[in-house]
Amino acid sequence: MRLSTLLALVLGLIALLVGGVTVFLATLDVGRYKAEIVALIEGKTGREVAIDGDLDLSLGLAPALVVENVHLGNASWARDPDMVSVGRLEAQVALLPLLTGDLRVIRLVLADTSVWLETDDQGQGNWALGALGPDPAPAPATGTPPTPPANTPAATDPPRDSADSPTGLDIQDVRLENATLILRDGVRDQTLTLELDRAVLMGAGVDSPLQVDLAGRYNGLAFAAEGTLGSLTALGAPAAGQDQDSGDTPPTSTPWPLDLTAQVAGATVTVSGTIADPIEARGLDLTISARGSQVGDLAALGPVLDRDLRLPAVGAYDVTLRLAGDAATLTAPDLNATLGTLPLLKATARGRIDDLTAADGIALDISAEGGEVADLLRLPALASTVLEPGTDLPTLGPFRVTATVTGGPDSLSVRAIDLGVGPPGGLRLTASGAVADALAASGIGLDVALNAPDPGRLNDLGVPVAVPVQARARVSDIAGGYRIADLKASLGRSHLAGALDARLDGPRPRVSGSLQAPLLDLAEMTGASPPAPDTRALPAPSVPAPSMTPIDAATPAAAPRGATLIPNTPLPLGALSAVDAAISITVGQAVLPNGTALDTVNLGVTLADGALTLDPLRIGVAGGTVSGTVAMAPVGGGAAALRVNLSGDNVTLGTLAKDVGQTDLIQGGRTRLRLALTGQGATPHQIAGTLDGRVLVHSVDARLNNAALDWAGADVPTQLISTINPFGKTENTTPVRCLVVNMTATQGVLSGEHGLALETDRMVVGGGGGFDLGAERLSVKVAPAAREGIGLERGLGRIVELFAVTGPFTTPALVLDAREAVRTGLRTAASAAGAVATGGLSLVGEDLAANLLGGSGAEMEPCLVALGEKEPGQGSGGTAAADPAADALDAVRQQAEEAVEDLTDQLPGPAGEAIGGGLRRLLNR
To answer: What secondary structure does DSSP assign to 151-220, as a single string?
Structure first.
């Protein structure tokens, strides 16, 4: 309901009541004319009227009329029977002005008054009053009425014209006590209630300003107001030059003034200025201010505004604006607002709003600053809408932002943005630029930068970086997302550049672009220390090497229950499904966390629907190149299918060992690598247990550094090295002509009858068997032999012509007994997950060593056998005996016994006897 309608209604009601008072005073016989007064008001309003109480008139220089229980009926469709109900009306008038035709109301009191204003679902108001037609005849009075005085018009006389009416109306004091105004909006099904404990309007007359004092509640919200209003005459008077017929309303010659101060929801609100036409709310020129000690207190206005206001308790506020224009086109040509209190928050806004009604024509300079972003976001009013429950916010430090906001509801532009978060010299984020349309998040052009000299501050934010970071980029919007261009970042000694696009309009975010880095040191960035070189000291030459005590392969030491060497943790498939990606990465040099250096890394990373593909994949490592593809795709149930197809050429083992910290272990060793594997599972261990495919490693021309080997250890690798090079204690290096691992993978078992080979200038080693990746067990038969002409054909080199390595990966056992080696090694290899075929069982009746070594004597070429370039050797080719395996083992045992004797002779003294005794006990098991 418009203010003008409400004021007109109130003034109309007052006029009707005052008109009734005029009649009463004119007749002096008040009670006799109750029915006539009722009939008069009904005729003017078209509503039923009832005066259920008495009419009392006290005479004097200021006669007072008291009317009780007055009711004005409501529209037929309204919810309440009454539109107006007055419990008590008291009107005190000055008697002498009546002699001149003026009605001066000294005091008008309305007590226990209720007004119900209502609209139906079509917007029709119950205040639409209408006359019933000609005034009805007066109701007959009981008894014989006295003859009216000569100056009293008869009831049937026609109404007085304006010439006979009082020439003036003056009201000096109007009081409402315990008044209620109820507004019901039938269109929006909304009810508003205004309760006035008191409402006092005082003045020298209708032509004089009014003093106002109000106190009450609006929809339950308490308020109080006091101040000065313009005169009632100016309020309702037509504007100077107004065309009553056309309805055009030019500004009044004397604008209606007002100066009010109100208290509501902890705020002090002042309104001062003028209104050219208050009835039509036109020509406003007002200054409005609101001040309070706590912004959060204004949340009490929520029920009044029919909104859930969640305002943060950021401190005091002070808002001043100049309001101009008409009710339909209000403007705020001058706005100045301050919100909040430091150190929590202080925000300001200065400028103008050309159209408040449409929130258009905004031109504001805004700023905000505070001591800590996290403190602001922890406020309940913000935390519940911005943060997830239980979110722990790190401290970021002070913040400040300035910007210019222009536009309106269709397009709001934010220009001259200058944002800074964090202290100068510390972790600090800055942004500058503009957003052409903030409502549509389009036309973004921001230069952002990050400076983090202390890596610990980034760690607090969940970014595990161990080096200082500096980064900057240009952020803009693209169709369906955003672009990060001109990206430049330094992380310690690493540098990164490139551009990325992030699209957000698909089923999941999609990132695409390219990144380049001349150097990417992941070891430095992650704080990982590369493995230190092995610096364990060699034992003195007089200390004998430990004896290779045979271990019962049937009862190996077990690993802890549930523990696996290959990780058995779930794959991060959920993270892969969170985003799609297509990124090209080029790195001049990369250093992995373990210290491995890679040259010229080219990666094409594709992530779609949770499937990850590295294609192309090309990495320069240890002087060679590894290239191919790696793909992993989800197959349901938390599992994924893995496909690896890699080729490596000219990779130098010595360089690779140096890169990982083993600087003295090996030299040279050009290597060829081929991996073609597929598998499936929910963990790396499960995938390893299902691998199918092929593995080939072929290395040539390497040298092992004997001084870097742990001769004092008793582990299997040490025993193997000492076996293939009996001169290791006296020579600096062991030359390796070739090393071959060539195996087929079937359901997680790597196997090959002749898939292992090693050749040095003095020894050759051939082997075969299986590695069960699922069970993490191995069973490999190994046949070392000395080359002819080096003096070891008899002696130490013949002791270990055939042995086996069996058991778990974590605790393998070395079986030196020849018969036990054949029995245990071959049986276990054959039964490894049922995938090692015969594992050499077909060789039981043959010369096993010769078969694995590719022949005997000068014909021993196990590397060619392992590569499939030469058929396995057949030894002497003699006819098999009834028990060929037993005969072969007996022959080996005899040769071993002879060798033990030779060795005992070469090592006189207690050392020789101890070693000889130990070896004899081994041979007699």
So the answer is: TSPPTTSPPP-TTTS-SEEEE-EEEEEEEEEEEEETTTTEEEEEEEEEEEEE-SSTTS-EEEEEEEEETT
